[in-house]
Specification:
Elements: H1 2-21, H2 24-55, H3 72-88, H4 98-159, H5 166-216, H6 220-316, H7 322-367
Helix pairs in contact: 4-5
């Protein structure tokens, strides 16, 4: 026994030595892995406890693992027992099989779905109730606003200038009497409608009761006849469904063709817009060319007129005789010489005039 205890005590010491020799990264990985496993086991345990509490009566519920509070000594004792179990290698934990766990999970999922559907139904019912209340309040508010508007339109605007008069009081009383009369009429109408609805309800209940009695009195032959009619109706419905499918297919093909033609029309419209722009540009260019053509035609007409005039002058030109030309040439030379001589004389006269003016100015200055 002592040797076994020594061996058992040496084993955790060796394990502790090995764990102490592990690096920090591996220890962190082990801690993270154990934390993940503990969280999964905690979730699984909570689910099993929930399922177990549903099976057991309320007064026989065992305490939950999370509610158990242990002291430090008890926790150390449990830990020592757990270590002794690990040392001896005996696994006494009785677990559930995978099929049992799957069954529990499926039941829990179904219960959760039922709870969600129940909550959704309650929420929808509450929502419909609140919507009905809001709708009723809106209708009532609209009626009140309409009554206020009618009162302001019929009474206030007419009696604003006659405050304190008997006529204003009579109008107010008449308006109130009319309102009460309309409410009484509405009440009578609603009462009659309620009575008619009750009578209609009684008739429908009576018809339903008669149908139930007739249904109880039906024989096997009637049921066979109903089955035959039901089969015929089912065949008719099937034929109608086939026709509906065919019409849907035809509608799909038509819609596809329509989309194709729409795309073609879109492309044609784009081409039309581009051609319209090009036609506009070509029209502007044509107008410009026409204006330039008119200008060129005018220039050509002017050039032709000048050409005709020059041709006519050229046709009418007659060369003078030689002697006359020589005399005219000599006379022209003499005239040019005389012009040059007179120009020289004028220059000399101007120079002498300038000299005389200078001397005159000097004389004037000396005399002064």
């Amino acid at each position: 026994m002592t040797s076994e205890e020594d061996a058992e005590s040496a084993l955790p010491d060796a394990q502790a030595g090995e764990e102490s020799e592990l690096p920090v990264i591996q220890l962190c990985g082990l801690v993270e892995e154990l934390s993940y496993g503990n969280s999964a086991l905690k979730t699984e345990t909570e689910m099993f406890e929930k399922y177990y509490t549903k099976l057991e009566p309320r007064d026989q519920h065992p305490p939950r693992l999370s509610d158990i509070k242990l002291s430090a000594a008890e926790f150390a004792q449990l830990r020592g027992r757990r270590r002794s179990r690990t040392r001896t290698g005996i696994d006494r934990v009785v677990g559930l099989s995978v099929d049992q766990k799957l069954e529990l999970v499926q039941k829990e999922l179904e219960d959760t779905k039922d709870e969600i559907s129940h909550m959704r139904a309650n929420a929808e019912r509450d929502l419909q109730h609140h919507e009905a209340i809001i709708e009723e309040a809106e209708i009532r508010g609209a009626e009140v606003q309409k009554a206020i508007h009618d009162f302001e339109k019929d009474i206030l605007k007419t009696i604003s200038k006659k405050k304190g008069s008997i006529l204003a009081t009579q109008k107010v009383m008449k308006y109130l009497d009319d309102m009460n009369r309309r409410r009484d009429n509405m009440k009578d109408k609603l009462r009659l409608k309620n009575v008619s609805l009750k009578v209609q309800r009684k008739k429908m209940l009576l018809q339903l009761k008669q149908k139930e009695e007739v249904g109880e009195a039906l024989h096997n032959v009637d049921f066979q006849q109903l089955k035959i009619e039901n089969a015929q109706f089912l065949e008719t419905v099937e034929a109608r469904n086939q026709e509906l499918i065919r019409l849907k297919m035809a509608s799909g093909n038509t819609l596809q063709m329509l989309n194709t033609y729409k795309s073609k029309l879109h492309r044609a419209m784009e081409i039309y817009v581009n051609l319209d722009k090009e036609i506009l540009l070509r029209s502007e260019l044509l107008d410009k060319i026409q204006k330039e053509t008119l200008q060129v035609e005018e220039d050509r007409a002017k050039a032709e007129a000048a050409n005709k005039k020059l041709r006519r002058q050229l046709a009418e030109f007659r060369a003078p005789r030689v002697m006359v030309y020589v005399r005219e040439k000599i006379l022209n030379g003499d005239l040019e010489k005389s012009i040059k001589m007179w120009e020289r004389k004028v220059e000399i006269a101007e120079m002498s005039l300038k000299g005389y003016r200078k001397s005159w100015n000097k004389m004037k200055t000396t005399n002064e």
